[in-house]
Amino acid sequence: MDVHRSACLSLIVVLLASSSFPEEYKFDLAEIEKKPYDIGGYAELRPSVSLQDVNAAFYKLRYFDHEQRTLLEDYNGKLQLEGSYEIGPARLFVRTNADLRYSHLGWEHGEAERMIHEGYVLLRSSDSLHFKVGKQTLLWGKGYAFNPVAFVGRPKDPGDPDLALEGFYAASADLIMSCGGPLKTVAVTPVVFPVFAHVNDDFGKAGRVNFAGKIYFLLFDTDIDLIGFAGGSRTSRFGIDFSRNIQPNFEIHGEVALIGHHVTKAIDVFGNVSESQSNATSYLLGIRYLTPWDATIICEYYRNGTGLNRHEMNDYYMLIDKGHDLFLATGDSSLLDKAADFSEGNYGRVNPMTDYLYLRITQKEPWNILYFTPAVAGMMNLNDKSLSITPELLYAGITNLELRLRAAALVGRNGSDYGERPNDFRVELRMRCYF
To answer: Which of 191, 232, 320, 352 is deepest in the core (most CB within 10 A)?
Structure first.
């Protein structure tokens, strides 16, 4: 009887316990199931102050009709949002970017029609076949600061190569095949690339449908891409790149681009315009090395076959000086207006000349300071020995907040690439909040 009474009492205790604490044993599959949508982004504030070189050619070109100022402050803001939604084999992805800037010239903001940096539909027909249509960023090439084979992409800013780039409208596919033996993988990526009014109209000649493609090989543990472009908006070109780990902590990479019938437009000191056509070759060779003390070293040599020579650059600087003197004497800005027309995409490119050397050293968490990453980057123009030095401090120890302090010093004599840029020194603080 005592045994039965004890058993009944134990059963009552178990039932009462289970009814009193139901949440401890609740298991909801919905809580761990992957959601079909994803939303995120960041808001960024980036104030900066720069020491201007009022005698530099590009300062005169940019501010010739404004009061000279040695110190310039500006406040940059950015809001980047991205989201995706998946239903069955289809995925919709959108990334928007809104820029706002305030300086002594007033408020400036990015163009509304270019606010969408990426927006495409991805369809997975199978694990080995994908289709993508819309505005997309095609990151072709193995280089860190430069990509001469990125025929259908926007050029990187070597001062900040990790920034997300705006895409172009295109239709593309990816066919991936696994193989046996030394050739382990083959992937084919064809691209249809239209250029019309309001559709990729900043890429090249309008009214053309262009074609590009990439064939990827994983051969003897070496990544290799064969890349081509044709269609008429730009001249036909062909490229090859590679990347290989010599050791687990030592990687080499390179790119070569052959550009047919490239047209170089030059302007002399008198404002006379000339054109020449030739086949150009651009290439890059680089290394990435991780030291035993967790420092990453990236070094790249870049040969820009479409770049301008020292004589052409010196003529351009002299044209600006001549136009600036004419404006001060008479108020006539015609020569400066002509020089400005040749700035964008030509003389005013980030790397307008032919030979550059890039070096970046990043140290992860020195002195055991968690989430702290200092780095220094340098860029030298090997044609005139001018250079840019950029140290930075990055801290990400606060949840969803990233702080970066960066300075940039430009060193070069008069008539050199970095010596004729508008500022000699710049300091900026970037505060980026992720959500």
So the answer is: 320
In a domain, 31, yes or no: no
Number of domains, the chain: 2
For tokens 């990187």, name the residue. 156
Max Cα distance, the chain (Å): 119
Partner residues linked to 29 by β-bridges: none
- Map tokens 């960024």 to a residue: 44
- Whether the Cβ atoms of residue 215 and residue 240 lie closer than 8 Å to each other: no
Q: Extract the tokens encoding 186.
A: 């083959």
Length of the chain (residues): 435
Stretch 127-139: mean pLDDT, rounded? 95
**Beta-carbon count within 10 A of 45 CB:** 14
Say if residue 100 is in the same domain as residue 157: no
Q: What is the DSSP string of 32-46?
A: TSPPSEEEEEEEEEE
Amino acid of residue 393: L
CB 81 within 8 A of CB 41: yes
Assess contact for 195 and 178: CB atoms under 8 A. Answer: no
Looking at the structure, do residues 245 and 394 belong to the same domain, yes or no?
no
Residues linked to residue 78 through DSSP beta bridges, in sequence order: 44, 99
Residues pairing with 334 in the sheet: none
Answer yes or no: is 210 within a domain: yes
Which of 270, 288, 307 represents a domain boundary (last residue)? Answer: 307
Indicate the pLDDT class of residue 105, thresholds 50, 70 and 90: confident
Q: What secondary structure does DSSP assign to 267-282, as a single string?
A: E-TTS-EEEEEEEEEE
Q: Which domain holds residue 285?
A: 127-307
Say how far apart CA 379 and CA 361 lie, in whole Å. Answer: 12
CB-based contacts of 29: which residues, under 8 Å, 6+ apart?
none
299 and 425 co-located in one domain: no
Q: Is residue 152 part of a domain?
A: yes
Smallest CA-to-CA distance from 351 within 160, 143, 58, 146 is with 146
Q: What's the pLDDT at 5?
A: 44
Model pLDDT, residue 30: 52
Give 3-state DSSP helix, strand, coil % of the chain, rounded to 5.
15, 50, 30
Q: Phi first, then psi: what are they for 66, rounded to 5°?
A: -125, 165
Give per-residue pLDDT as tens, 313-342.
Answer: 999 999 999 999 999 999 999 999 999 999
Question: Given a cut of 90, is residue 1 above it in pLDDT?
Answer: no
- For the chain, report the end-to-end CA distance as a whole number of angstroms: 65
Alpha helices (runs of H) in 288-393, residue ranges in sequence order: 310-330, 334-341
Domain check: are 217 and 79 in the same one? no
Tokens of 81: 């949002």
